[in-house]
TrEMBL record:
<keyword id="KW-0479">Metal-binding</keyword>
<dbReference type="InterPro" id="IPR036615">
    <property type="entry name" value="Mur_ligase_C_dom_sf"/>
</dbReference>
<dbReference type="InterPro" id="IPR036565">
    <property type="entry name" value="Mur-like_cat_sf"/>
</dbReference>
<dbReference type="InterPro" id="IPR004101">
    <property type="entry name" value="Mur_ligase_C"/>
</dbReference>
<keyword id="KW-0460">Magnesium</keyword>
<dbReference type="InterPro" id="IPR018109">
    <property type="entry name" value="Folylpolyglutamate_synth_CS"/>
</dbReference>
<keyword id="KW-0547">Nucleotide-binding</keyword>
<dbReference type="InterPro" id="IPR013221">
    <property type="entry name" value="Mur_ligase_cen"/>
</dbReference>
<feature type="domain" description="Mur ligase C-terminal">
    <location>
        <begin position="298"/>
        <end position="417"/>
    </location>
</feature>
<dbReference type="GO" id="GO:0004326">
    <property type="term" value="F:tetrahydrofolylpolyglutamate synthase activity"/>
</dbReference>
<feature type="domain" description="Mur ligase central">
    <location>
        <begin position="44"/>
        <end position="271"/>
    </location>
</feature>
<dbReference type="InterPro" id="IPR001645">
    <property type="entry name" value="Folylpolyglutamate_synth"/>
</dbReference>
<keyword id="KW-0067">ATP-binding</keyword>
<dbReference type="Pfam" id="PF02875">
    <property type="entry name" value="Mur_ligase_C"/>
</dbReference>
<keyword id="KW-0436">Ligase</keyword>
<dbReference type="Pfam" id="PF08245">
    <property type="entry name" value="Mur_ligase_M"/>
</dbReference>
<dbReference type="GO" id="GO:0008841">
    <property type="term" value="F:dihydrofolate synthase activity"/>
</dbReference>
Length: 436
């Protein structure tokens, strides 16, 4: 099959739903020769912060001279974003070739009585095989959903496991308490391994630490007191890492905005300390270079400055809290013009109060996903909470005309589902290129 046929095949497997469990992915990877066993893996689970932490670690390892894979979910604008090596997306020819091979193995599975793998299982298998063929040193592997029964958890050994910020999300699969969700996330911890825990509440950390102890794994708790912020504005943040026993770092700069990104940076640094102590060559220069080179599209990303246009994939209550804090940090009490769209199963009702208090006007959008809440329904929901002006948008190409009507001093933010943010980013980038 060619690239277009490969993409069609992958997306056609969406109909098989999202099924937690490792039987299918275990069989599929066995038929592929267990490619995931051929490189060192940094495995990352959590509700928020996985992508930022993954990218920072990946970019430092690349700066250290290691051929490093990155597996993320979901993609923002192009499918090939999901499978990267050294910041370069999988090429279309490789994707087509490996998808053809994976489909052949799936046909064998089905003939032997197995269920058809889900879309995420198919993509995971493609990624694992590509990384093996490219002979990478490290794979920074982001969990898709949960952890314990996520397809990525077919990996048997990890160099280190990371648990990032945990909050309410995917409760129909993971449970309706933070402790239950933390238990599922902690399912990625392997026996006799190492575990990094993002700074968060004790009830969550206790669950993770208990699972680590049951697996006889070393626990490394990230201490937010090791971060001293020096300065920050919409161009980036500068901070000092006060822990000096492994790295003696100069002041570090990151492009990622918001206080939570400093804690993600601390989590990445703690992970890099563990990797260095495991015998790998990581130094202060590679960290400094990796951090300053790290960019993560769609996460409080300022894509235009006059007017300021922010894109943020805050798609659950924790993400919206981070977004709200960042808006107040960088823009004070200034009211913003908000564009908002969310998936219906993300409990949009819970986050609206955060958003209306920031906004002087709201436009609603329908994310490109079968689970999306329509722009009309979202507008109706917001009106139940506030008398703020709300306008539902029916077609994305209406956005550009609306933006052109705003003053250059406005602050405009698109927030919500990454399926929406990706489409908006493509649209606005194309418009900016046409103007320049």
């Amino acid at each position: 099959m060619n690239y277009e046929e490969a993409i069609d095949f992958i997306h056609s497997t969406y109909k098989f739903g999202s099924k937690l469990g490792l039987d299918n992915i275990t069989k599929l990877t066995e038929l592929l020769g267990n490619p995931q066993d051929s490189y060192k893996i940094i495995h990352i689970a959590g509700t928020n912060g996985k992508g930022s932490t993954s990218n920072m670690i990946h970019d430092v390892l690349v700066s250290s001279g290691y051929k490093t894979g990155l597996f993320i979910s979901p993609y923002l604008e192009e499918f090939t974003e999901r499978i990267q090596i050294n910041k370069i997306h999988i090429d279309k020819e490789s994707l087509a070739k490996i998808t053809t091979l994976v489909k052949e193995k799936i046909d064998i599975m089905i003939s032997e009585g197995y269920n058809h793998p889900t879309e995420f299982e198919v993509v995971t298998a493609i990624g694992f095989k590509y990384f093996e063929e490219q002979k990478i040193n490290f794979l920074v592997l982001e969990v898709g959903l949960g952890g314990r029964f996520d397809a990525t958890n077919v990996v048997k050994n990890t160099l280190v496991s990371i648990i990032t910020s945990i909050s309410y999300d995917h409760m129909q699969y993971l449970g309706n308490t933070l402790e239950k969700i933390a238990f599922e996330k902690a399912g990625i911890i392997k026996r006799d391994s190492k575990v990094i825990i993002y700074p968060q509440s004790d009830n969550i950390k206790d669950v993770v630490k208990n699972q680590a102890k049951l697996k006889n794994s070393e626990i490394y708790e990230v201490d937010e007191k090791n971060i001293r912020k020096i300065k920050g504005d919409i161009t980036g943040q500068e901070f000092e890492y006060l822990k000096k026993d492994v790295f003696n770092l100069p002041n570090l700069k990151i492009n990622l905005l918001g206080e939570h990104q400093l804690y993600n940076a601390a989590t990445a640094l703690c992970t890099l300390e563990v990797i260095k102590k495991s015998g790998y060559n990581i130094d202060e220069h590679s960290i400094e270079k990796g951090f300053i080179n790290c960019k993560f599209a769609g996460r409080f990303e300022i894509i235009n400055k006059e007017p300021i246009i922010i894109l943020d994939g805050g798609h659950n209550i924790n993400g919206i809290e981070y977004f709200s804090k960042a808006i107040k940090e960088y823009f004070g009490d200034k009211k913003i013009i908000l564009f908002y769209g969310m998936l219906e199963d993300k409990n949009p009702d819970d986050v609206i109060d955060y958003l209306v208090h920031l906004s002087k006007e709201i436009y609603t959008l329908t994310p490109n996903n079968p689970r999306a809440m329509s722009s009309n329904d979202m507008a109706y929901l917001i009106r139940q909470h506030s008398d703020i002006k709300v306008t539902p948008i029916q077609k994305y190409n209406e956005i550009l005309n609306i933006l052109n009507g705003f003053d250059e001093k406005e602050v405009i933010a698109f927030v919500g589902s990454l399926y929406m943010i990706g489409e908006v980013r493509t649209l606005i980038k194309k418009d900016l290129n046409l103007k320049n």
